[in-house]
Design a protein that fits this description.
heterodimer; A: mainly alpha; MetI-like fold; two-stranded antiparallel ribbon; 2 strands; B: 2 domains; about 70% helix; about 0% strand
């Protein structure tokens, strides 16, 4: 009886619920992979047992790379994500450092403004933004999204970095200042290197958000050559009522790989960024 | 500061001048404002200005690519008399409240499960976060195929494993089922965010509290109710606030999966505003729909704050 309890308790409290969550969470990814490897005759045959691949093929991947501009979309997505992440980190630091470290008139108001811009829902802005991008003649250029993505990322980066800047002991700054370093030198050479983990957290977070963005990309980018992966997949692999399911799943899987790989290298930083705001705040 | 008016050709004066110049920029107030001004201008231009311009647009009759005419509150009057708009408002409320509750309860459950010791814990945690980091559009495409009318794997399982009637439910074709489906998928995507954040919160609760309560004879439930939950409250509040804002203004999932259908059953504010402005070409009316997000969102957040203050 005692042994049975020792076996049953972890089963009920840990393994069964955990198994449920893991299956629920990961099944769609398994399904992407399985579907992308099935030949069409297997894909559209309801009599087959669908959970496994009977005759795996890479045809959908080959078609995706040859018949669509998938590689171009991937390149666009990466370029846009990297540029908007860099812009967001630079602006984030410029906001966060003074707010975390200096006393100056208006600091409280600025901190409040930054928090408020973070909470403005994107759907509130996309219609006016469409007009503005038109005026600037930026429609169908990657510049349009490189300019607008940071508006979604800067407030978050600033908020996260403020927390990290506050943890650096003031003595280090004072020592650098006494040695004759200017404020900007102190920031770049003393504080930023110590806040590496914070910069990585904010960077990874901004990068995944930029890869995820869809609404602005959908509105601003209508030409194949400038599309990002999500927009390209939705706009060009679904034609009217025709769904190219094999290619769609291949695109979904390949499109997720870069984010997943980068994320897997920096999981701890990502989790730190994710939880910093909520747990400390 | 002693002010001397020396000509710049004098080296001593040049050094003094440079020092004064440097001292000026080294002052906290000056340095800080020099730093924050560029990003603030950027945010003012691309968040503040569009926000105000959106309000201005909502007061106009503005067909796409044409000049607008000022119509006062006409757009809002039109919306008030539009049954689809009220349907959209109700949909958004249901979607937000149900999905948030599911995410909170499911996320707390997962956090409690994960708060035990087991092998490969970090790997499992990393894997469980995948729905949250993979681009939503791409994972939603997978869900669309999972719920496909003819080849749904869910229906295949129900028919072949559990003996349900053919052809099985049309997940995205029936208004109620479509709403249930999008809520489940939104929960799937947002639950890891809750779980991982609450897990981090759980790990800040000192073990001694639980030990002391156990010695005093508190049951598992009572320890959860009187120790875990109250200490987790601030974290739950913040996470829920973020979750509500992003669920309320959700666009991607609906746009990919149902485009608001069938018969407007899953239209949310964001997708409806998109339809009116981008597909219908009525920028003014679309901006008015988008603005309608603000009051109910504020209402939910206030209600949440009051509720959190009362509970626990």
């Amino acid at each position: 009886m005692v042994e049975g309890r020792g076996f049953l308790r972890p089963l009920l409290r840990l393994w069964l619920p955990l198994a449920f969550y893991v299956v629920f969470t990961l099944f769609p990814f398994y399904w992407m992979a399985v579907t992308s490897l099935k030949p069409n005759r297997e894909l559209y045959n309801p009599r087959n047992m669908p959970l496994i691949v009977h005759h795996p093929t890479l045809k959908h991947y080959v078609d995706l790379l040859q018949e669509t501009s998938f590689l171009q979309w991937t390149w666009n997505t990466m370029l846009v994500a990297v540029v908007s992440t860099v812009i967001s980190l630079v602006f984030g630091v410029m906001l966060a450092y003074p707010l975390a470290r200096m006393r100056f008139a208006g600091a409280t108001l600025i901190a409040f403004t930054v928090a408020a811009t973070y909470l403005v829902p994107q759907p509130l802005l996309f219609i006016p933004m469409a007009d503005i991008i038109n005026w600037l003649n930026l429609g169908d250029t990657l510049t349009s999204v490189m300019l607008t993505y940071p508006t979604l990322l800067v407030p978050f980066c600033a908020w996260l970095l403020m927390g990290y800047f506050k943890t650096v002991p003031r003595d280090l700054e004072d020592a650098a200042r006494i040695d004759g370093a200017t404020r900007i030198q102190t920031m770049v050479k003393v504080i930023l290197p110590l806040c590496g983990p914070g910069l990585i957290s904010a960077g990874i977070f901004a990068f995944t958000l930029a890869q995820n963005e869809f609404l602005y990309a959908l509105i601003f980018l209508t030409d194949t050559s400038v599309r990002t992966v999500p927009v390209g997949a939705i706009a060009e692999l679904i034609r009217g009522d025709v769904f190219y399911w094999g290619q769609l799943m291949a695109a979904a899987l390949l499109g997720s790989v870069p984010v997943a790989v980068i994320y897997s290298f920096f999981v701890e930083h990502y989790v730190a960024g994710l939880t910093a705001g909520a747990v400390k705040g | 500061m002693a002010s001397t008016s020396a000509s710049l050709s004098s080296p001593a004066a040049a050094v003094a001048g440079r020092r004064r110049y440097r001292e000026f920029f080294e002052r906290e107030g000056i340095f800080s404002w020099l730093m924050v001004t560029p990003p603030l201008l950027f945010l003012a231009a691309l968040v503040g200005y569009p926000f105000c311009y959106g309000i201005y647009l909502s007061l106009q009759e503005r067909p796409v690519a044409q000049a607008g005419t000022f119509v006062g509150l006409d757009n809002f009057v039109t919306l008030a008399g539009d049954p689809v708009f009220w349907r959209v408002a109700a949909n958004t409320m249901i979607y937000t409240v149900v999905a948030t509750v599911l995410k909170a309860v499911g996320g707390l459950g997962l956090a409690l499960v994960m708060n035990q010791v087991f092998p490969l814990k970090n790997l499992v945690r990393a894997a469980l976060l995948l729905p949250f980091i993979v681009p939503t559009v791409l994972s939603t495409i997978a869900w669309m195929w999972i719920l496909d009318p003819s080849f749904s794997v869910v229906n295949w399982t129900m028919i072949n494993v559990f003996g349900a009637d053919k052809p099985g439910p049309a997940w995205l074709g029936n208004p109620t089922l479509a709403m249930i489906s999008v809520i489940i998928i939104n929960t799937w995507r947002g639950l890891p965010f809750y779980a991982i954040t609450l897990l981090a919160g759980l790990q800040t609760i000192p073990a001694e509290l639980h030990e002391a309560a156990t010695i005093d004879g508190a049951s598992t439930w009572n320890r959860f109710r009187y120790i875990t939950l109250p200490l987790l409250k601030p974290v739950i509040f913040i996470v829920t606030m973020f979750s509500v804002i992003f669920t309320f203004s959700d666009f991607q999932l609906i746009y990919v999966l149902t485009r608001g259908g069938p018969a407007n059953a899953t239209h949310l504010f964001a997708t409806y505003a998109f339809d009116i402005a981008m597909l219908g070409g009525q920028f003014g009316l679309g901006a008015a729909v988008a603005l309608a997000i603000l009051p109910p969102l504020a209402l939910i957040l206030v209600a949440l704050a009051i509720y959190m203050r009362r509970v626990g």
